[in-house]
Amino acid sequence: MASSDSTSIAGFYGWTDTLKAVHYGPGSTTTALPKLLDKLAIKKALIVTGKSLHDKTDIVKRVEKVLKDQNAYGATFFDIGQHTPVVGIRRGLELFKHHQCDGIVSVGGGSPIDASKAILYFEQKETNGSTLPQIAIPTTLSAAEYSVSCMTP
Predict the structure, then answer these.
(1) Cβ-count burial 69-88 (b if 16+ within 10 Å, e if not)
(2) Does 32 or 143 have the greater pLDDT score?
(3) Secondary structure (H, E, C), the chain
(4) Mean pLDDT computed over 2-11
(5) pLDDT for residue 65
(6) What pLDDT digit, counting tens, does each position of 72-99 carry?
(7) Of the candidates 11, 61, 4, 37, the residue with the CA atom closest to the CA atom of residue 134
(8) From CA 47, how far away is CA 101, in angstroms rounded?
(9) In which band, very low, low, confident or very high, does the pLDDT at 135 lie, cut at 50, 70 and 90?
(10) pTM of this structure
(11) How many C-beta neighbours within 10 Å does residue 94 have?
């Protein structure tokens, strides 16, 4: 299902019901994120990221801008530590609920991506509703973006 050729460093692929799409290449955040928000019907997203990416790079600000341009920005949570401590997950869940978000955009490596899965898991447990969607923007090769679960205490 790939849509790139051998000379391109940009493209798309997807292969499971839970992993709807993987977009990659320069500019893919600004081009793919609005499409994914629409495809997953996310109206207000919580961004989950780490403190270093938030404070030392502009990637989170660029994601915030895309969400704001789409009128889909809820809040940004950047207090998740390495290995996804439970206390951070609880704080993220409270922010998610406070801003009445209906999806998460995670930016970073395995900790923010796994924290997002845990936040959505606990939200689903509290509401007995369906599991809400997550869009992952990985900045490292952690492979957390390819799994559908996380370990919960």
Answers:
(1) eeebbbbbbbbbeeebeeeb
(2) 32
(3) CCCCCCCCCCEEECCCCCCCCEEECCCHHHHHHHHHHHHCCCCCEEEEECHHHHHHCCHHHHHHHHHHHCCCEEEEECCCCCCCCHHHHHHHHHHHHHCCCCEEEEEECHHHHHHHHHHHHHHHHHHCCCCCCEEEEECCCCCHHHCCCCCCC
(4) 54
(5) 98
(6) 999 999 998 787 888 899 999 999 999 9
(7) 37
(8) 10
(9) very high
(10) 0.83
(11) 12
Structure-token pair, residue 146: 């390819």
The two beta strands, 22-24 and 11-13, are antiparallel
Q: How far is CA 20 from CA 5, 62, 71, 133, 135, in A?
A: 20, 22, 22, 10, 9
How many residues comprise the chain? Answer: 153
Query: How distant, in Å, are the alpha carbons of 64, 85, 93, 126 from that of 29?
Result: 11, 27, 24, 31
Token pair for residue 75?
A: 């809040």
Q: Give phi and psi for 116, each to the nearest 5.
A: -60, -45
List the structure tokens of 138: 């990985």
